[in-house]
Structure prediction request, 333 residues.
Amino acid sequence: MRAWPSPPYATPWRQWVELTSRRTWHRHTSAVVCSAPAQTLKRRHGRITGVKPPAFAYSAPERLDDALRLLADLGSDGKVLAGGQSLVPMLNMRLVAPAHLVDINRLAELATVEADQRGVRVGALARHSDVERSAAAAEALPLLRQALRQVAHPVIRNRGTAVGSIAHADPSAELPAVLSLVGGEVTAGSSSRTRTIAAADLFLGPLETSLQPGEMLLSAYFPALPPGTRTAFVEVTRRHGDYAVCGVAVTLTRDDAGVVTQSRAAYVSMSDTPLVIDLAEALVGGRASDADVDAAGRLATDRTQPDGDIHATAEYRRHLAGVLTVRALRAAA
Prediction:
């Protein structure tokens, strides 16, 4: 299904790109709850009255079963509110108009970060900062912390949720790329069933996922990488805290002799869904020499076909893909 209803714009993703570039959404999140009729802002006695977002009903269930039953009843009219760092700005810009918000912030059982040698499972209410600061998660999968440190600013990471970022399916976000790169999966729940969705099957397009009406994400699972794997995440932004003009996450696996056995890269802001490229052609069998790494950069440039927008031309993004692939591989090596 489409992750976002589209009124009043036919293409909310394009409006999102054109209207925004910064992730300092705390400036725009004052109006969270709105049950009054939506209206144009008016001045009365020198003050602005009315509300910014469209009208919506609001519920804050205290049990997961209640939340899932409510979402089942609402169907496509319901929208989950967790951290709100993307949803609330889009409401205030009237890029989305859900009929009913279901606030899950009282469901403490979803605020979990569990890690062992097999991987990291992140609950739907775990904040970016919870995952970033988890020593166990960083030990099991260092790439998670490397990516999360690129997300906006600490104030955003303190409120925004990791799973919410995945559900939002913004191709400019870091965590969808990480989930895709490591071959992760999510658990989706509804009033009638729980199912697992691989990252490759989750992201359908910008702000669009394969979640069905009445479903919500309960957790995301990031499997650990093979022994001998090193990782890095680098990106270029117009200003600190902006969405990336281009970002690259890489994995580089060597055997005991130091020979590269596998290498992959995932790209941010380069396609409608997270783009993963196998760099084996350039690196496997070698020792990640400068020549090998440069060849991987050229491979990345050849295999990316980004769109241009108001922030960067397609040609500049392709150039960045090659440059940042080289930079990330050298950091991982």
Summary: The two ends are 40 Å apart (CA to CA). Residues 229-332 form a domain with the Enolase-like; domain 1 fold (CATH 3.30.390.50). The chain has 13 helices and 16 strands.
